[in-house]
Amino acid sequence: MKLKQCLVAGQALPLTATEFELLAALMEDPSRLVSRSVLFESVWGRQSAVSDRTLDSHLRNLRHKLAGAGLPDIVKTVHGQGLRLGALE
Questions:
Q1: 22: Cβ–Cβ under 8 A, 6 or more apart, which residues?
Q2: 69 vs 7: CA distance, rounded Å
Q3: How large a percentage of the chain has pLDDT more than 90?
């Protein structure tokens, strides 16, 4: 099994596998906008019957954990288009 770890300022951030995959999809190209359909496919695959609510729940949990690690509002929603990473300040 391949170990996956997220570090924020040198500290491990405990993420579920799904949260990690969502963050990884957003980090592939931090400057690009990622549509919800691309996130679905990246995390669950094309044939998945996962609902929008499931994606929203995982994103909410990921945002909460990132905020607790000092990165509030790093995952930005662009209404009607998708998500992107905000600038690290």
A1: 39, 42, 43, 58, 59, 62
A2: 10
A3: 67
Q: How far apart are CA 14 and CA 16, in angstroms?
A: 7
pTM: 0.87
Write the CB contacts of 37 (distance below 8 Å, at least 6 apart in sequence): none
Q: Which two tokens stand for residue 34?
A: 């990622």
**The predicted structure's pLDDT at residue 50:** 84
Q: What is the DSSP string of 20-40?
A: HHHHHHHHSSTTS-B-HHHHH
CA distance 63 to 7: 15
